[in-house]
Amino acid sequence: RQAEVEKKIESLSEVSGLGSSPDIPIGRHCRNPYPCDFIGHCWKKVPDGSVFQLKALPEYKKFEYYHQGIEYARDLPEDLIQDENLRLQIQSIANEQVIVKPSSLKEFEEVFEKSYALVSSLWFAPAIPPFDGVRPYQPLVYSLGVRNGSQDAGPPEFFMATPGAPMPADVIRSFFDSLERFEKILVFDAEGELEKWKAMGSENEELSHRLETLLPKIIDAGSPFRDDRIIWPRMMECDSPEAILRSLGYDAEKANGALTTFLEAALYYAKLTPEAGKPEGPQSLPDIEAFHDSYLENFNKLAGILKELLQTKR
């Protein structure tokens, strides 16, 4: 590939000598095969309320309309709006309002009148198995967080594995003990969470049975935001409570430790040695706990928004 590389070097040298950025219009290449570092520069002329905010519109259509001169969602011709979710989001953008579909939150009507917990897990999936009995890229839970949904509740409970070892059975038991105190269990992504919880105790019949008894209590509090039961102007980012809060215009809690993202926390944990989990070891697990605490705080704020939306629809 030397000839190809030589030509590439020549073209890159020309680019580096330009007095301004190349005159290339934005397009699908901005995020494919990965997000470009210059999106903030090249997209600065894209206005708020643009067609790129429309979740129900295929990406290629967004660029097609944008380059045709239809920049704003509100300018999309009526005959091009066939999808109900697309129509509702355009209405939401135009009026700067949140739209909740009728009866779409029915499963939550009793949740906030009962005792409920907000639960999440932190995990990593290493290419090289860190201990026996693990396959490459198998998700491994290293922290389980349980927050009481009550307003006067204390700090969350955390159930953590020791670095370099699988989640201990006694820690999983304590986690399930905590969950059994609640009538309802709210998670942000039920399918993803349950997949990891089942993997933790898959070889232990007692733990598998205990998890089965908890299943009827579990409700996915993130699903109304992901599956278009709740429509709002900037609904493109729905992959975490923090992202949804920010897209709705709310302040999201920032971790007060050294870690700020799931990836940072996972990479940090993966490098820890078994000594980190001992009382006399370095203060590394508290950083993970601080990050997990901020996640649960944002999840709690999102649950509060869900509760408010439910009350306004009654």
Notes on the structure:
It contains 11 helices and 7 strands. The protein is an alpha/beta fold. The longest helix has 28 residues, at 285-312. 38% of the residues lie in helices and 11% in strands. The protein starts with a helix and ends with a helix. The mean pLDDT is 91. The strands form 2 sheets. It has a 5-stranded mixed β-sheet with strand order 4-3-2-5-6, with helices on both faces.
Provide the residue-averaged pLDDT.
Answer: 91
> Sheet with the most strands?
5 strands, mixed
Whole-angstrom Rg: 23 Å
Trace the largest sheet across and list its strands.
Answer: 4-3-2-5-6
List unreliable stretches of 5+ residues.
none
3D shape: globular
- In N-to-C order, the SSE pattern is HHHHEEEEHEHHEHEHHH
Distance between the termini: 66 Å
DSSP, total strands = 7
Total of helices: 11
The assigned structural class equals alpha/beta
Helical residue percent band: 25-40%
Residue share in β-strands:
5-15%
